Amino acid sequence: MIKDSLxxxxxxxxxxxxxxxxxxxxxxxxxxxxxxxxLTKLFFDKPFSEKMQKIMSRTAYYIFKETHADxxxxxxxxxxxxxxxxxxxRFTHSFGGKxxxxxxxxxxxxxxxxxxxxxxxxxxxxxxxxxxxxxxHFDCRVFTxxxxxxxxxxxxxxxxxxxxxxxxxxxNQYAQSKFSHKKLQKLSIPQVLxxxxxxxxxxxxxxIYGEFLFRDKEKLSGYYSKVLIKSYDxxxxxxxxxxxxx
Length: 246
Ligand SMILES: [Mg+2]
Fold this sequence. Notes:
By secondary structure, the protein is of the alpha+beta class. It is built from ten helices and six strands. The termini are far apart. It has a six-stranded antiparallel beta sheet, with helices on both faces.
């Protein structure tokens, strides 16, 4: 005989798939635009679109600020956020760190901002109605680092990985706009670079390096510093400052 109420039974099914980020670990988030190669083809200039960057940069800023992230890094169609564990009594991550809730909410917020901001960039080529009806949206991964004792190093490594990806993609996109697919086939990044005698200085720096936002611990929430280039060392130094409560 079933003693549980129907609600209890179904909650049990749900809880079998509920995983959470522990409160003493960071939540690391990557939001990634879906079908953005088609979106770019339809609405933005190639190989680099300042308008697309503006929308992504502003979207990242809103998400960073609204959700009180500690670091944001935006490059191409993706945004990487980190929420550090706080040294406060009874601290919990948002939604108790529940991965499903964090991922679905962050993907929804990012999608909303991205589509609303399409309107604000003032682009002739951008037909707002068809832009919004394209239905641009983001998927979201939420995970944490492997070892909390080594959290600063691991977070810095994560950003280094995305930063390198940004630079590699920028070089590839630039090369693809100049050379045939056949010529570039099977070439490594250093080999591609050899084909480009001088990097075109008209390429916006954000396209090459992406853009970081750091929450400023010294000031009230909402203040932040915005930078284009951060190395592994400076990211780690920032994290050490935050974790030591400096
Ligand atoms: Mg993508």
